[in-house]
Amino acid sequence: xxxAASGCVAFDSVTITxxxxxxxxxxxxxxxxxxxxxxxxxxxxxSLSSGSYTVSWNWGDGNTDTTLTASHTYASSGSYRLSxxxxxxxxxxxxxxxxxxxxxMPTATISFNSDSVQCLNGNxxxxxxxxxxxxxxxxxxxxxxxxxxxxxxxxxxxxxxYTISLITTDANGCIDTTTHDVMVLExxxxxxxxxxxxxxxxxxx
Length: 205
Fold this sequence. Notes:
Layout: H1 3-6, E1 26-28, E2 32-34, E3 40-44, E4 53-58, E5 64-65, E6 69-72, E7 78-88, E8 93-103, E9 110-112, E10 117-119, E11 125-129, E12 134-140, E13 146-147, E14 151-154, E15 160-170, E16 175-185
Parallel strand pairs: 2-8, 10-16
Antiparallel strand pairs: 1-3, 3-6, 4-5, 4-7, 7-8, 9-11, 11-14, 12-13, 12-15, 15-16
């Protein structure tokens, strides 16, 4: 017999549960760092209204972590995709990712426009910053003299060995240093004696 035709109605119910989803979030100390000394420190700031969750960090270079706070040093310069995946105890998942940059280091390069070994008399050392992508610099000539010009000159007051240092900085704030040794030779002091600077022609000697 058709239940609808007889006026009979059947009911059924199903209980559903909607679990809270986590909201992935984190802080990072600095998303853009120079290669030398780079260390990216992250801390989980995710949220979940009820229950617990676990975290999984993916540094984008094949390395991972599962702690709430983590640190990582990249072995090569470049751009990487850092991601945090948060999984609740009920299996709900959220992921947040962002780009981090590891800047290549500049290579400080000194170009000499003069001999690196000179006599004290008339010495003048001319140097230029030949660093690729260098935007600022500091010269230290080893005798107390300093300069920030692209090309610089220095004269030494005393003979000896000196080290010229160049500290160069690129547009990303990355710094490199190089040095070049120079030598200032003691100039001879010409001198002589003469028996008599004014003599008669006959018998002069």
